[in-house]
Amino acid sequence: MRTELYKKPIIEISKNLLFLLIISINLREPYFHTRELLFFLFIFFSIPFGNYKKIINILLYLTIWGVSLIYNVIVPGSNVIDGVWFQGIIISSYLFLMVFSTKEYRDVIIKGFITSATIVSIITIILWLVCWFIPAIRTALIAYFSLLYEKTNLSFIGIDTRMIVGIPFFFVWYRTIPIVIPALGYFYVKRLKGQKTRKNAFYIIIYTIALILSGTRADILVAFMLLFFYIAFFLMQKHRFFIAICIVLAGLYGGLMAANAFLHDKGSNSTAIKTLHQISYFNTFDSDLIRTIFFGWGYGSTFYTLGRNKFVDVTELSHWESIRRYGFISFIMIMTCIWLKPLINIFIKEKYVIRYFYIIWVLSFVFVACTNPYLLDSLGFCVLLFFDVCFQFDVSTTKKRITHD
């Protein structure tokens, strides 16, 4: 009885810390390492409440990290020992959050993640409106963030005009804008499950607007693709299969055309840099096939990229970077056994056609994460926690009901 008396306030503290931790993934230095502080406080209060059957994720990741490190310390050819290899332990520790993917933490994880995505969206939209209508503030903010980048090499907000397929586009980019994609898909799933409330529609609208205003081509493409597939699946529920198939084909065709235009956009500096990054990765892979296939060059090692004309330890291309760090086989294991495991489980469990929308939902984030360094970092692992909780305790248990606004 006395144990239960102490347990309730402790778990409430734990839930509040987890809520703040998920929101804090939007912060980057120099904010006094807020995320790390909240993470260790959360772990301290929450150790008794985890489901430790799920610790296999972090054990697998740490094993891959450790094998890669040991090989690259022993075998010449990598500068991992001179790099920031210890950060690999800190980042991989966020996978430990998966042990708290339980029914007891379900509400706080979903609420924290949706709140986090909403904050990013509102910041993006408000900043865009202010900068669009008040040029003086736009000029001041551009100068401030440029100076911050020059002094600290930090870039968590970008405000500028870029060319997208030859069209000038004014954008406000917040560094963690990709977290909006899982949240957007979540509310599409809610509507497909029958919860057609005005609140759900509101979230879908502001998330879509924020992704478009971010000016990131992958985010814009995914925002429209999710909308197209939502309409198609909605029509399938109404047994309008011919129209649904036409919309899916039109969406796929439009998506492929847009992706092709983005990839061959000669006016885009970002595309040129990523192309040079990719060439540099292939050059690195060709230099040592054993490392490429089995061990990688280790977390924290650097390589020369033509995209930046210098040695770097990470680029925006997460999939190639993961192969460079850990090797091709380890990358496949990480994707299959860690990243796609919640999707595979729900795909087997769910018997209705909506399970195919789940695939689109998850792969939308993975696609965007492969153009940003988020797939295997604290943000990516928080997204993975969100997906796991949704698939186990939320969307999988939501019964289909027909409601109207």
Quick overview:
The protein has 405 residues and is mainly alpha-helical.
What would you note in describing this structure?
By secondary structure, the protein is mainly alpha-helical. Helix content is 66%, strand content 5%. The protein is built from 17 helices and four strands. The chain has helices at 2-23, 34-46, 56-74, 87-92, 106-133, 135-152, 180-192, 198-213, 217-237, 241-263, 269-287, 289-295, 318-326, 328-339, 341-349, 355-369, 378-394; strands at residues 157-164, 167-174, 303-305, 310-312. The strands form two sheets. It has a two-stranded antiparallel ribbon with strand order 1-2. Strands 3-4 form a two-stranded antiparallel sheet. Helix 1 (2-23) runs parallel beside helix 5 (106-133) and helix 9 runs antiparallel to helix 10 (241-263). The longest helix is centred in the first third of the chain and has 28 residues, at 106-133. The radius of gyration is 22 Å and the shape is globular. The model is unreliable at 401-405 (pLDDT under 50).
Secondary-structure blueprint:
Blueprint: H1 2-23, H2 34-46, H3 56-74, H4 87-92, H5 106-133, H6 135-152, E1 157-164, E2 167-174, H7 180-192, H8 198-213, H9 217-237, H10 241-263, H11 269-287, H12 289-295, E3 303-305, E4 310-312, H13 318-326, H14 328-339, H15 341-349, H16 355-369, H17 378-394
Antiparallel strand pairs: 1-2, 3-4
Reported for the largest beta sheet, the result is: 2 strands, antiparallel
β-strand number: 4
Mean pLDDT across the residues is 83
Helix content: 55-70%
Structure class: mainly alpha
Can you list the strand order of the major beta sheet? 1-2
**Cα-based radius of gyration, to the nearest Å:** 22 Å
The first-to-last residue Cα distance is: 46 Å
Number of H/I helices: 17
**Principal-axis shape:** globular
Order of helices and strands: HHHHHHEEHHHHHHEEHHHHH
Strand content: 5-15%
